[in-house]
Structure of tRNA 5-carboxymethoxyuridine methyltransferase:
Amino acid sequence: MENNNQDQSFDKFADKFEKNIYGSTKGRLRHELLVHHLHDCISLQTLPLDVLDAGGGTGVMSEMMINLGHKVTLSDISSDVLSLAKKKLGENINLDIQHRDILSLSNNRQYDLVVCHAVLEWLQHPSEVIRKLVDLVKPGGHLSLSFFNHDAQLFGNMLYGNFDYVEQGMTSKNIVRLSPKNPQKPKVIISQLESLPVKVIKQAGIRCFHDYLKQPEKQISEYEQLKHLEIQYGSSEPYLWLGKYFLIIAQKDS
């Protein structure tokens, strides 16, 4: 995670973060859908790529990239989550772990693929980081950007009857450390990317249906069918705008 001014770090919360996110169908489905869309847009099975996993936390996406034979730089501001990543990934000549924020990454190096998933919603000033991420992509390379969806958060809270919370602008005096503090609006992020030297080639909602099920037990008992339908409809209107997370894959101008 990033650390500009009041950006969120998960030091002292790393184990809880790992368990809450990836110890549930929410985390599993989010990761598997992201991987599906990356494979759908980028030739991950061909030549080894130079990959930056920016704000990559405990290295879940980095592990997948390394297993495919790619060279990965994993960066994060939390030393605790990077400690978990080191235990998970071990020593690997294709892995470079950097304890730093995104804005401090060197401009002297660019990457074939920059992945920045579930980071923007923890930042005070995400637009500055987006510009930096684009700068770090090689000409013709790709940026994969996913973030907590403000519009889906509002929709979900209305469904749950949290009317006062919505009327207060979805802000609370009680700070929950694992609750994203700055959800982003997909169309705002898309608009910003359109002003930069990249072309958006993929838009998808992540968990368009999972979180809204009236029978939550089906998240587990019928997981594979649910995942199939998420893939089938997650890139289509109007469902993509309902995803709890939103994914954008963009290609940098050559």
The chain has a mean pLDDT of 91. The longest strand covers residues 137-148.
